[in-house]
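User: Show me sequence and structure for the first protein, then do the same for the second.

Assistant: Starting with the first protein.
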Amino acid sequence: MSRYALYLASVLLALLSAALAPLERAWWWGVAGFGLLALAGTLDLLQRRSTLRRNYPILAHFRYGLESIGPEMRQYFIEPDTAEVPFSRQQRALVYQRAKSVNDTRPFGTLHDVYGTDYEWINHSLRPAAIESHDFRIPVGAGRAQPYAASVFNISAMSFGALSPAAIRALNRGAALGGFYHDTGEGSISPYHREHGGDLVWEIGSGYFGCRDPDGSFSEARFTEAARDPQVKMVEVKLSQGAKPGHGGVLPAAKVSAEIAATRGVPMGRDCVSPAAHSAFSTPRELLLFVDRLRTLSGGKPAGFKLAIGHPWEWFGIARAMHETGVLPDFIVVDGAEGGTGAAPAEFIDHVGMPMHEGLLLVHNTLVGLNLRERIRLAAAGRIISGFDIARTIALGADWCNAARGFMFALGCIQARSCHTDRCPSGVATQDPRRWRGLDVADKGQRVHRFHQNTLRALRDLLGAAGLRHPQELGPEHILRRVSPTEVRSLAALYRFLEPGELLRGVPDEPVFRQYWEESSAEAFAPPPRVLALRASRSL
């Protein structure tokens, strides 16, 4: 109730002032002042566009006032101990503008230092292209019984349980309106995912939620029943995620509501454990056979896996298994360590996993080197917000991009960083109905849709300015980066891109391939002999 304390106090003081005003004229000032506050709070409660104002009547305006002053006041009063506040503020401002279809043009040039290192841009053409549609599609699972045409921009994995029922409803409503997909996260398919009928990619994690037997093992029967629902368009095995790769997780028993228990297929009153590793497979070869099994059980829908790149030899083992067995996933999603909206230990957030650009490039190069890239679609996720972010990621090798953070901003997330406390002020990351009921699904679903559409329009305009007609025409030569005050390089010059079939002809002259490729194995995720030998020498 403390959220409503100022509002209730204003109402009571306005009434008290009105009662005393006939006795003492000075109380009319109290009627005016407290009455205006009470009116503002009442309007906050009745409006449906801002969840924050509905959950924090009157108080929310103090935050907006501080935010309007600028990033310096924001850093001290709103998001303390944050090194990236100005950047985050710009990100959110862009998403809010596009989610509300507010004009996002601005005067007086770029906000970036164009002479500083790491500044990036896309070169334009003197012969711009006119592109009619911004609905760019990537076919996935060609030749399968139920192929899918994916948008180049989709909602990344966020589970029911981590997000509120209202947030899941709004995300899926936006996906249905825009014809793009909504990744369920490993928390399985809840009734809230089904309410608006938006396309789903069902993520299967190590807990096999929604398709598990009572002992936590994978259940073919339960998977088949759910995966054959027409709303499920693709199936994705989650090996690891950007927020906390290799960590697993526990949802405490107190947070396992009846709805979450029913959705995940776990008992109430007990901790819901998501193990760090899968039990359905233990080698690269077994992983691919499991993916193929899911494809068959789903009725021929595209199936793939998601991973944050860690030990290179483990990824190489998977690639070798593809080459040796001919069993291929329809798609691979590379999750960057810089991404992840879920709460995780500080060390995992800051120092575990490979950043998206390096991970994406390694996966892309390996598939190209094995002549497999044309047969496997590649997606990427990791702090993707703008049309330029999408263009740069596709130029490095992706076919499409997923985003979590941007779509959370579209829902009204203010990065209060209280996701793990169940006290999310915007109703996005909480299971407290007193908080999430303030999130208007119809309004926020429209904002999710508009953010997606306006971002793709921006991508279309970037492509047209560069003289291109589709994102698949983008290459690393189109993106430029200033690497020093006096030197500019294209991504094609900065990174080594393998030639088709190069890995079949020998080991490329690249450190990561020289060190780990030849000793990687399709039969185990274990370290190669060279790594074990180095460990042994250090222990002597």
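Switching to the second protein now.
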Amino acid sequence: MRSRTRPARLLGLLGVVLGLLGALLTGEATATGGTPGPAPRAAAAGPGTNHAVDDPFTSGRTSWWRQARFGMFIHFGAYSNLEGEYTRPDGTVCRNAEWIKRQCAIPTDVYERRAATFDPAAFDAEAVVRTAKEAGQRYIVITSKHHDGYAMWPTKQNRWNLRDHSAFDPHRDILAELKRAADAAGIKLGFYYSIWDWHDPDFADPATFPRYKKRMYAQLKELVDGYDPALLWFDGEWDADNPVNRWSPRDGAGLQAYLHRLDPGLIVNNRVGKKRVVDGDYGTPEQEIPGEPVAGQLWESCMTLNDHWGFARYDTNWKSTATVVRSLLAVAGRGGNYLLNVGPDRHGRIPQASVDRLRATGRRLAAHGRGDAVYGAGHTGLVAEPAWGTVSRKGDALYASVTAWPTPGKPLHLTARAPLRITSARVLGSEQKITVTPAGDGFDLMPSGPPTGPEATVVRLAVRPPAAAPAGHGTGLTARSWANEDFGGPPAVTTIDPVLNMSYRFDGSPAARIPADHFATRWTGALRPRYSETYTLTTVSDDTVRVWVDGRLVIDDGTAHGPRTDRAAVALTAGHRHAVRVEHTERTGEAHLKLLWSSPSQEQQIVPRGALYPS
């Protein structure tokens, strides 16, 4: 395996280097001191370090993930051997799935004895990957270690793993098998890893936690070096007891930096830290779909196909294919990803009911080109999301996914949020005509026939969006930084920062001569948009932030706070240089400052260098 993954690692590193060079030309790079932000490195961090390596909204590193939209989650571990039920010594039955050890208070020795009989001999990696492929899923995330601490690969850090503590063939490695099958099918593979560990005796005690952390780092290195995952999906970051979980923002910051040193191309979710907007590359709403794009962060909604993550033999409350398809269309239309879970049984087999629904979902996506509304598509602000469905955008096409087809003679109304023209409209998979008429605050779409299926009918609208000014040729904003938080005296350093994308975390600062606490930065210059529209400016900050546009204070968050977002609606004119001033202060702890924008014609991203001009 190592001989296969080492070239892949070198290619990934080369890709990141090329991506950073490209970012220097396109405005995606981050910087302090007027140069592109530092690539991940093994050297110790300190003053002058910026941990923001790129903008996940536009980075080549995350491009495949943003295009994929649909993935398979797999919860599989020692808990699967109980199949959701535990009979207590008094004969009563307790039901749960992946949390069964804790929720049913199973004694550790009893749980270990049950794990010793775990034999998922029927696990078929090729069948799993084939099911994902047939479902239209572009990536897979499988649990490598859940909260019970049981490792699903032959880790060298302990014997609490599938090879050394089970009845499974010790010569097999299901993660390696899945990696081979996924690579052959062109599907990306990622690993779930729980920070919270119920089994390791060193986890809960602050005096011994460093020993646990050392083993955790070593296990993650095993996974990265041995299996070359495309992403790591962390969990178990929250404050908890039984056992006590003291994972801190500082722990998360250190782990994230370590992982980027191991593999600069890794994608990591926000549960690597404390599930905040500054943690990882994307947010992870669970069992819910946000009503709009998440401010300041990419996002992925993870959901179950029934009511449990792990296998529970009694749980037959399966989501319908229509529900899955409609959820996926809604997620894509709001700019997110959809990670849908399956839980293999104790033999390693995905339940047939899950397979049936996934295959049906794939057929519905493939039929009539519905997949065009999902893969590579994203949020559009050109029109409001209608009550009768969702709308996604890919280039100069809108895909209106209609889940409530109108009665004959009734139109589908679209509310426009920016001036645009619809030049043609057609129902995918149908010869019926659909007429488009300007009406009130938007357009009426009048179908001439029935829907193409019970889940959703997709109408492709070719649009002529608002005119755009040519791309700018800015070089960034003038940054003046002080070694105090009061902007007092002359600045310690003056630079040109190509973009405002700073994650100094706990140890960094704008320059080597500025300590990691008690500093301030003021950026000045101009912001030049490409569209004459109302933009939403979004800041991600810690500790304080203020933003002025054309002399008007539009974001005023001067009270010290932890990581959070602030937003302001600002009318901007295409091609015009609007005066901008941003002030950020760091008192103690973490330091973050990011400036993003979005508009009806512009998806959310960090304001690129080409749009920023120094004072």
